[in-house]
Amino acid sequence: MKNILTAVILLLLAVTPAVFSQSDDEITVEEFYLQNIEMVIIKEQASTLDRDSKLMALKNIEEMIDEGKVSEGDSEVHYILDYLAQEGLGREINESGRMINNMPIIRKEACTLLGELGGEDAKNTLVDIALKDNEPMVLSEAVYALGKLGMNDNNQVSQAVASIVLTQNVLGPDDNLAYSALLSFEKIAEANSGLSDPLAFQAIIAIAGGNYIRPVKMKANELLTALRKY
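Above: the chain sequence. Below: its structure as tokens.
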């Protein structure tokens, strides 16, 4: 950690003249320094095997987003969130024949922040997680985050969400996941002046007639009614 911080400080010293030459309304040397140090710390927290450190990295990223320090689709922040979203899924660490980094809560929180970060890369990561993960709470968050982004070129997102719903409908209906999917379809429709994906309608109808609690089924029927108006 000390070596990394030293390297960052040297880099910052090298770019100081260029930063000073900028106008007053642009980033100052101090702000530039602090932001880079902050990202170094977050990367270190994210890369440890300690669950609490990873949660702290996520909390720090959330604060940066809330404070407007991160632009939409920021590549550095996306890299960290993508890394954490794969924890125990696309990246497994085994010890004595047992996986020690299966952390669904980390993946879930990373999905939440990907929805806040936005951008094409965030969308691609969320689709990837949604199609690979098997934890309902992670799937629910990934699906909801995809709806927040509102992207649906060539029905890529709506088909991914629908596939998850139809698969879970067979394996074991989950009320939270189904409701998240309905909210996602609703937001996608709002962002794209409607929904034209037949698979999405199939999924919504499956929820409306499936083994779900009454509020979920009612939401499905309400959504079907709303979609007819586009």
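The first strand starts at residue 94 and ends at 95.
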